[in-house]
Amino acid sequence: xxxxxxxxxxxxxxxxxxxxxxxxxxxxxxxxxxxxxxxxxxxxxxxxxxxxxxxxxxxxxxxxxxxxxxxxxxxxxxxxxxxxxxxxxxxxxxxxxxxxxxxxxxxxxxxxxxxxxxxxxxxxxxxxxxxxxxxxxxxxxxxxxxxxxxxxxxxxxxxxxxxxxxxxxxxxxxxxxxxxxxxxxxxxxxxxxxxxxxxxxxxxxxxxxxxxxxxxxxxxxxxxxxx
Length: 227
Fold this sequence. Notes:
This protein is mainly beta. It folds into two domains: 154 residues, Distorted Sandwich (Spo0b-associated Gtp-binding Protein, Chain: A); 61 residues, P-loop containing nucleotide triphosphate hydrolases (Rossmann fold, 3-Layer(aba) Sandwich). It is built from two helices and eleven strands; from the N terminus they run E-E-H-E-E-E-E-E-E-E-H-E-E. The strands form three sheets. It has a five-stranded mixed beta sheet, with no helix packed on it. It starts with a strand and ends in a 14-residue tail after the last strand. The N terminus is likely disordered.
């Protein structure tokens, strides 16, 4: 029997770092002021966080692209650019993060861990204040910020159903699931149309109720009879 799993494919991007600034002091009594360009800010991180009130991955079906803010560029007077804000991706307990190409497990939230920094934002570039030397007192050099990263991943949820529909073959279990939820299981007039459990989510007020449509039961079904 396959595990109950809700899945979603999402794209996440960390922020790029801000560019360093080329600037010089231009004060009234300092006509030949030195470099004063500040550093760019760091790009925002991609952070997964566990929310105990979530039961499914339904929220990822409507929003599947998450991007952190870029860092701001540095400014005159040695002013640093602001760091970009992190993007927070909420997940229910029991979630798994996998590489979409290799299916390699990246992070397992089955334990008590609540936060996981998946992608770090790019560092901000240095302003020209860092490049002053005895032989180059007016550097016109600054560094660009490091770019962020973009990754597509698969999120799986190992879940336990709240309600299981159990009965004989062709008793109408799949029809009931189809009526109460947005799940669209295969329905036909022959036994064992359902070979693996189908999951549906019934929303009652502000709560999601997970319903599982179990394959029909007959004598010997535990040993594979009927399949």
